[in-house]
Amino acid sequence: MHPSHLPSPIARGLIAAPRVITCDPHRPDPLGVVENGAVLIEGGHVVAVDHLHTLRSSGAPVVLHGQGVLTPGLVDAHTHAAWVGSRHDEYRIRMAGGDYEAIARAGGGIRSTMRSVREIPQKELERQLWCRLRRMLSQGVTTIEVKSGYGLDEANERKQLLAIRYAGTAPELPRVVPTYLALHAVPPEFEGQRTTYAAAVLPWLRAIAQEGLAQFVDAYVDRSAFSVDEAEPALRMARELGLGVRLHAGQFADIGACELAARVGASSADHLEHVGPAAIEALAGAGVAAVMLPVASFTLGQAPPPVGALRKAGIPLVVASDANPGTAPTESLPLAMALAARLYGLSPTECLLGATRLAAESLGLTGVAGILAPGASADLVLWELPHEDALVQPWGPPPVEAVVLRGVRVY
Ligand code: NIG
Ligand code: FE
Fold it and tell me: Which residues keep their CB under 5 angstroms from ion ligand 2?
């Protein structure tokens, strides 16, 4: 879409709804609900949130009046959205009892998607990412973290990150937070040399950071992926270069990834289906957020993470889609919220906070995204729902009435 075809921004106006869910922690209730509320937006930002009758005195026109619930735009804090190709053949095998890790060992899995990504020209990768992010926007997502990790060599990781950067500059797409997934799988040219590969990415990481192509660095630290010792140098380098760290941790086994996340000052540890008490203590002590990825545990047939212990430790619970062609072939954060409620036992309030404010905070966007409060970006979703608790029902296409992104009604 050419920017000139974008609807014009709402210069100054009120967006009103019977239930405005601010997710503002300064309000007394967990979701910061304002009944018969309105949000005054101006110049792409939120200026005030209050009862509609109070804000009417501002003289600003009511530009949108929903009949249901108004929330901040959703924030998807963990996606591999820059993928191409399809792994439906593996999915069929896995649903019939095949094992994800065994498929990967045999050269499928992440390396199958690597082949698709290496083959595709930059422009076509950009086009497909654009289409995917538009579909995600239509489900209420206005901020999205996108990882590389399917190139597995410098040129193709850069290709993915350049496509992600292109998406990040498009005004008609959600706000994009780019992550260099430096250690995802060992490419065929380093077969049998995992430790050598883990060192080979260091100069790529330096160049990527210097070019501003990533805000975070991620690594898949698990029994059939990279060890703590292999991942630590890249993560330390990331921090020295001013980047944040997010980790794939404890998806299949607790090999100390959470303690590593805590040591390097990671922003989040993601998956966590297999983590013990020491791991949870480490996350809590270092203020690392826990990113719940229930679509992945759903397709892998796994038991949930120890949600009760994470909650008791006071760790922020984020909910994300994990959108990827293998473990979470979905584009839907609302689906992840539904599964977080059903499979993980998160309350509707936890699901909503985990897909808005807490997700934004884990991405370094505190006060900018995932919240309706003065100064925040004017990213809002009107839902045709009588109550916010209905958002965690398994809708399929969620009942989105309108999406406003940076003050522009984009959907
Ligand atoms: O988050 N397990 C590691 N990474 C992804 C899956 C990637 C893939 O299978 O393509 C995940 O589950
Ligand atoms: Fe992932």
Answer: 322
